[in-house]
TrEMBL record:
A GO term for molecular function: copper ion binding
InterPro entries membership: ADGRV1, CalX-like_sf, Calx_beta, CBM60_xylan-bd, DUF4347, Ig-like_fold, Lysyl_oxidase
Domain of life (superkingdom): Bacteria
Name the UniProt record assigns to this protein: Calx-beta domain protein
Coiled coil region boundaries: none
Residue span, Calx-beta domain: 459-557, 758-855
Keywords from the UniProt entry: Calcium, Repeat, Signal
PANTHER family xrefs: ADHESION G-PROTEIN COUPLED RECEPTOR V1
Gene3D superfamilies from the UniProt entry: 2.60.40.2030, 2.60.60.40, Immunoglobulins
Signal found in the keyword field: yes
Any single Gene Ontology cellular-component annotation: membrane
């Protein structure tokens, strides 16, 4: 079966020996592509993707089944994009295998971590994979724990849904058995028929797992060690063994992969010191190993918060020790690689006990303690090229104790980067810890080598020329801050000179962030002679609203005193939100157990029967129309009207009013994207009117707001579950109740309704999927404009854009005015409209069409599968004579089988009759649509012409009727009972207005013989082309559904029984005046007289 169709179907796990390997295939030569990807040429139908971060790569590649084609991904591009490109152009693949690091619900491929959210955001790319796969193809994921837990299940199900493939993934460690791994893929959706990508020999040879290994020892063996990855605790090890003081370590392993050392913390969590009892717990960590790379704990790059040293006790810092003496952690750092800039700091301390930290881009990369009193070079090898303006040198352990003669100060003579020297006393070096006699310790460009208190030197890349006023600039053109920052400082400096007093104006500018997000400031900064730096401060607001990233800017202008503006005059600040919203289900009820919904909560319901109740419904039907189903949408129970209906069709239905039911209170989080989903049905017979309905509403703060409605439309409607999804985000931050209502407005109708599987959930915070709401738009060329609605679904977070453009088809630029542009959806916005001008020319044409296509979504949004609208234009310019139909009802047929029916609806009296409509024109009635099922669709009347051609004009719509199993042409005829007096008032009407038009009889053979065109293509089926041929007729027998008028409450007397065809003149005919026929009918005491 196809996994995309199977839902949550589960098969047996895929194991190493469950399916025989395809042995005996000859390996083919391998080659290396331009991007470094290794491809093994093969004519087989199996493709294997391998991520380069997988350990023991050469052994693993050698073990790939030679009957498969191999693709080695690159580490510098997103994995989903790489796989999509590699699959493009391929067909009929039986299996696709991905070998990569993984964790529960995620895979590391290329330079990205792919989660369920990633799949949703890039679903357009992922859906492309199915084009390369055969029906029933297998997609197999060999990453540790990918299918584990709820996140793993969602990930696998989503991948199956998007690709249509059967998917298998591991729920534990994948790889060598000696390292607690295996090659079983236990999480399966669909039916897996393919062999594993790695041969039996390859699986035996491979000695790695796709894990973090910790060498640790405790002092008392009661110590608890916690492993954290990315700030989250993933494993806890109690009673750590070994002998810490003797250096006898034990190995602890956790199976997670695709992790950088910089994501890893080892924490000690149960310190205890009891001198009396002789207890002193301490934890010693020798090293950690990640995917074969070992990181020593005593490295100067490892940060510690729980290490004691004789010089200063327990303080946080780069302690170069293996011990945690109190509760705290070791924070590891990734290997630098050693091929970037060499940074040397020439520094000395006044006491020799001073500590120094080196920061690059605000991140501490190295620290040194007790640097001594003699000038020394402190060196750091970076992993990349570093410029001086990214460097800070900090003094971190100031101490002033005059009683003991202690005054720590740090002197930094200079820094040297790749041979280039930068003097600390230069006018463009910013200091936060320098004391000067004039003003003490203030931040600024102090032109000093000494930090007298804890602070830093921030270097710049441009030398200073003291003989000119300089250029005034900001230090950064962009900066991203957390909204919890508090005070934000802008550093403004003049470079290239500091001669004379100068000034510059500054002001903030709102963007997507406004005055609610930051403090607006403006003013003038003055630089005294020789002063090279100033600071502007403002406050960032830490609100509780869940928001997308927002930005504002600060701009410099109008320099004076001979100064000029420098290279950066505007700094854009992006504020990232720190408020999280729960994502998941807030409320659900499938009514399988006890339910606390309340019927008639206000005591205002008017229905005499059929009130809402939760329980196991009984099946009910009237003729072929099912009015109540005998089960819920899922399970046996639902929320239904007339719970005990059973076979008593008219005894328990909703009658003579409205019945309501409300849910318990549901609290919606502030700022959340909230979705309501439920299943329902509304069933009725054809005497129901649009005043009979099912409604769904939201009640908040005492105000009721209707969010969904389904009204009857005068034809039998069988009960069939319909799924509804609604956006409730407008009520985020409020407590709401859901209300469902069903109504029989006049008491004469038979109405039943039900609701099941009500779910209110907070959607993940996603930018959304952009689609076209209606992909087929039909119009007359006189319409003036065509309107295409573009929607954003599955998330509305942030500002996103999508491009659109028209493309010519059979209609060209003489028929419409091309449009192209970009639609912008603001944060929270879900709909936009594209309007296309239509040209009303005088040229005789057939139906013509063009398209509007969406492309290039931004802001994280993706484009859905409905990305193209086809606009069809009907011509209105023909001067060639037409062969037109003439719809003529036949009066005598109304008297055929004229009868009274009291069985269809117990307690009601129905007048049944047959109807017949003939075509007396010189051409066929032919109605063309595009689909035989689904939603309503506009249709055209095809009009044949004397020159052998034809033209089309809009004529109404086709609607699919589930109870009949085919489509009907809507509004074709009406049935009425009319007073015979001068008033001509209608006293009762039949519900039937839609018909399936086919040829039944030939009552007018002479008309057939004289016709310009008899048959065309219409008149022989209930498909997407319907009609009545010339001289033929369509007959609806009295025994068919809806061939009646309810006369229960009609007074005794004589009436006209009347049929009117094409009451709204949607069909073009030779004669529009002969569409009504009638016969006299006398009713007395519910009987037909005469």
């Amino acid at each position: 079966m196809l996994a995309g169709d199977a839902g949550h179907a589960v098969a047996a796990p895929v194991v190493g020996d469950s399916v025989a390997d395809d042995a005996g295939s000859d390996a083919t030569d391998s080659m290396t592509s331009d991007d470094g990807t290794i491809v093994t040429n093969s004519s087989t139908r199996s493709l294997v993707f391998v991520d380069p971060s997988v350990p023991n790569l050469e052994t693993l590649l050698a073990g790939v089944d030679p009957a498969s084609e191999l693709v080695l991904l690159t580490p510098d591009a997103p994995g989903v994009e790489q796989i999509t490109r590699a699959l493009a152009g391929r067909k009929d693949l039986q299996s696709v295998h991905i070998l990569a690091h993984g964790a529960s619900g995620s895979l590391q491929i290329g330079n990205s971590i792919v989660t369920e959210s990633t799949l949703v955001q890039h679903q357009q790319l992922v859906r492309e994979w199915s084009r390369s796969m055969a029906v029933g193809a297998d997609l197999m994921l060999y990453g540790c724990h990918v299918g584990q837990g709820e996140a793993g299940t969602r990930f696998v199900n989503r991948l199956a849904q998007l690709t249509g493939a059967d998917v298998a993934a591991s729920i534990d460690a994948t790889g060598a058995a000696a390292k607690s791994g295996d090659w079983e893929l236990e999480r399966v959706v669909g039916s897996i028929e393919s062999s594993l990508a790695i041969t039996e020999v390859g699986r035996q040879d491979y000695q790695a797992t796709l894990a973090i290994t910790i060498r640790a020892a405790g002092v008392t063996n009661e110590e608890t060690m916690v492993l954290q990855v990315g700030g989250a605790t993933v494993a806890t090890f109690s009673n750590v063994g070994g002998d810490a003081y003797a250096g006898q370590f034990q190995t602890y392993t956790y199976d997670v992969d695709g992790v950088s050392a910089g994501d890893v913390r080892i924490a000690f969590t149960n310190d205890l010191y009891d001198d009396v009892a002789g207890i002193d717990r301490n934890l010693r960590i020798d090293s950690i190993t990640i995917d074969g790379t070992t990181f020593q704990t005593e490295s100067p790059t490892v940060f510690s918060t729980g290490t004691w040293l004789p010089a200063d006790g327990v303080v946080a810092g780069f302690r170069q020790s293996e011990f945690l003496h109190t509760d705290g952690y070791f924070q590891f750092a990734p290997s630098t690689g050693g091929d970037g800039s060499l940074i040397q700091i020439r520094a000395a301390g006044s006491t020799g006990e001073e500590s120094v930290q080196l920061e690059i881009d605000g991140v501490v990369v190295q620290s040194w303690d007790n640097i001594g009193t003699a000038a020394t070079n402190l060196s750091y090898q970076a992993a990349e090229t570093v410029t001086a303006d990214r460097v800070r040198v900090s003094f971190t352990n100031d101490l002033y104790d005059p009683d003991n003669g202690i005054d720590r100060n740090l002197t930094v003579d200079s820094i040297n980067i790749d041979g280039a020297s930068f003097q600390t006393e230069a006018a463009n070096v910013y200091s936060t810890g320098t004391w000067l006699p004039a003003d003490g310790i203030v931040a600024g460009f102090r032109q000093s080598e000494t930090l007298h208190t804890n602070g830093y030197f921030q270097y710049a890349a441009t030398p200073v020329d003291p003989d000119n006023p300089g250029a005034i600039s900001l230090t950064l053109d962009s900066l991203t801050v957390d909204e919890g920052l508090g005070t934000l400082n802008f550093v403004v400096f003049r470079e290239g000179g500091a001669d004379g007093a100068v000034s510059v104006n500054y002001a903030t500018n709102v963007g997507t962030a406004d005055g609610n997000d930051f403090q607006s400031v403006s003013g003038t900064l003055t630089f005294a002679d020789g002063v090279t730096g100033q600071q502007i401060s403002l406050q960032i607001a830490d609100d509780d609203a869940v928001e997308s990233d927002e930005s504002f800017s600060l701009t410099l202008s109008n320099p004076t005193g001979g100064a000029t503006l420098g290279s950066i005059v505007t700094q854009v600040v992006t504020i990232t939100d720190n408020d999280e919203v729960f994502a998941g289900i807030l409320f659900e009820d499938s009514f399988e157990g006890s339910s606390n919904w309340t019927t008639d909560p206000d005591g205002t319901d008017t229905a005499t029967t059929g009130q809402w109740a939760a329980g196991a419904a009984q099946a009910t039907s009237s003729g072929t129309t099912t009015l109540q189903l005998g089960q819920g949408r899922t399970g046996s129970r639902a929320l239904v009207t007339g719970l005990a209906a059973g076979s008593s069709v008219g005894s328990y239905d909703v009658d003579s009013g409205v019945t309501t039911v409300v849910s318990p209170d549901i609290a919606l989080p502030t700022g959340a994207e909230v979705q309501l989903s439920f299943g329902y049905y509304l069933a009725y017979l054809n005497n129901a009117t649009s005043d009979d309905y099912f409604h769904a509403s939201v009640i908040a703060g005492g105000v009721e707001t209707e969010v969904y409605a389904d009204h009857a439309h005068g034809a039998n409607q069988s009960a069939a579950w319909t799924d509804v999804m609604l956006d409730l985000s407008a009520w985020a931050g409020q407590t709401i109740q859901l209300q469902f209502a069903a109504a029989d407005a006049l008491g004469a109708s038979l109405i039943e309704a039900a609701v099941d599987d009500v779910v209110v959930e907070v959607l993940p915070v996603l930018p959304g999927t952009i689609t076209i709401a209606t992909t087929g738009v039909n119009l007359d060329e006189a319409a003036g404009t065509a309107t295409v609605v573009v929607q954003r679904n599955n998330g509305r977070v942030g500002t996103v854009t999508v491009d659109y453009a028209t493309n010519v088809g059979t209609a060209d630029t003489a028929d419409f005015t091309p449009v192209a542009g970009t639609l912008t959806f603001a944060d929270g916005q879900s709909e936009q409209i594209v309007t296309i001008p239509i040209i009303n020319d005088s040229i005789v044409e057939s139906l013509e069409s063009f398209s509007l296509v969406l492309s290039n979504a931004t802001g994280g949004a993706v484009i859905g599968s409905d990305n193209t609208a086809v606009i069809t234009i009907a011509d209105n310019d023909s001067t060639t004579p037409d062969y037109l139909p003439d719809l003529t009802p036949i009066a005598s047929t109304l008297l055929e089988n004229l009868s009274i029916d009291r069985n269809e609806i117990p307690g009601r009296t129905l007048l049944r009759f047959s109807t017949e409509v003939a075509n007396a024109g010189d051409g066929p009635l032919e109605i063309w649509g595009g689909s035989t099922s689904g939603n309503s669709q506009q249709v055209f009347q095809r009009i044949y012409q004397a020159d052998g051609g034809y033209r089309d004009q809009l004529a109404g719509e086709f609607v699919y009727h589930p109870s009949h199993g085919h489509i009907h042409f809507e509004g074709f005829a009406t049935y009425d009972l009319v007073l015979t007096d001068a008033s001509g008032n209608i006293v009762a009407s039949g519900g039937k207005t839609s018909f399936c038009l086919i040829n039944i009889r030939q009552p007018l053979p002479t008309v057939t013989a004289d016709a310009g065109l008899v048959h065309g293509r219409g008149g022989n089926s209930c498909g997407n082309v319907q009609g009545i041929s010339t001289g033929y007729s369509d007959v609806y027998s009295a025994s068919l559904d809806d061939q009646w008028i309810d006369v229960t409450n009609v007074a005794n007397g004589q009436y006209w029984l009347q049929i009117t065809t094409d009451p709204e003149n949607n069909i073009q005919e030779t004669d529009e005046t002969n569409n009504t026929q009638r016969v006299a009918v006398t009713l007395r005491d519910g009987q037909i007289i005469g």
